[in-house]
Amino acid sequence: MTVLTPLSELVRDHNYDLGQAQTSLIGLPAYGAGGEQVGSVRDAMTENGGTIRYLLVEAGSWFTRKEVLVPVGLARIEDDAVYFDTLTKDQVRDLQAYSAGEMHSDEAQVSDLRVLKGTDYQAPATTGVAARAADHYQDQSLFRTPDRLQLLEERLQVNKDRYRAGSVEVGKHVETRTENVNVNLSHDEVVIERHPVSDPRPVDGNVTLGSDSETIRVDLEAERANVQKQAYVTEEVEVGKRTESEQRTFTETVGKEVLDVNKTGDVDTDDTSGRH
């Protein structure tokens, strides 16, 4: 029986370092034929100490709570997603459901391969009467690991949010001052004119001095100031706000994945990237 081991288990329990390009597949959205979303990649299933054979796909967009194993050779990886261009909804329906931790038998694997390739599909080189999953692993159309290695680079992304930086209250109060106003006021004054008689003349009749005293009353008028205060509009104030922008520089450390090529033995590599 071919034993399949989850990639996440190798990394967790056996400290395998399989590289970012392989472990980053886990969690990517998965799309089937016609670009329709199937669900997401939950894990990768390995055989023989780390060779990826299947991708464990959670098909929640098509079927409720169903996980299936899809041969890795059917996967196309780009734009932060995994595309199975030939995988149809009917095929996912007919694939064996997989549960975490279970043994996926050779019979179940071969049954799945015939769902994907047709009922008459045979292994490239059958070694026995009973078909084994390992016999089919030679089929590069199904089990060839994607060549594309994605190098990741961190870039700064700045999001802006508004916060209350302060407030301004505009009100008014009364300031007093002493003001002098000059006003011309008029008033009456008594003018008494006395004219001596140059040619005294006698008074007719008998007159006793002091017996007929007369008093002349003259009313005098004067102006007085009636001071009142009147409010006037001397200034209008409009309160609003405007947005000013300023350029500020923020510094952060970012990382970049760089390709490492380790040579063993007498091996030549052809690096066409122009970097050494």
TrEMBL record:
Question: What sequence ranges are listed for the domain PRC-barrel?
Answer: 23-89
Instruction: Cite the SUPFAM superfamilies for this sequence.
Output: PRC-barrel domain
Question: What are its GO biological-process terms?
Answer: photosynthesis, light reaction
Enumerate the NCBIfam families for this protein. YsnF/AvaK domain
Q: Which InterPro entries match?
A: Bac_photo_RC_H_C, DUF2382, PRC-brl_dom, PRC_barrel-like_sf, Stress_Response_Assoc
Q: Which GO terms describe its cellular component?
A: plasma membrane light-harvesting complex
* Keywords, sorted A to Z: Plasmid
Stated name of the protein: DUF2382 domain-containing protein
Has the keyword Ligase been applied to this entry? no
In this chain the DUF2382 domain maps to: 149-261
A Pfam family in this protein?
DUF2382
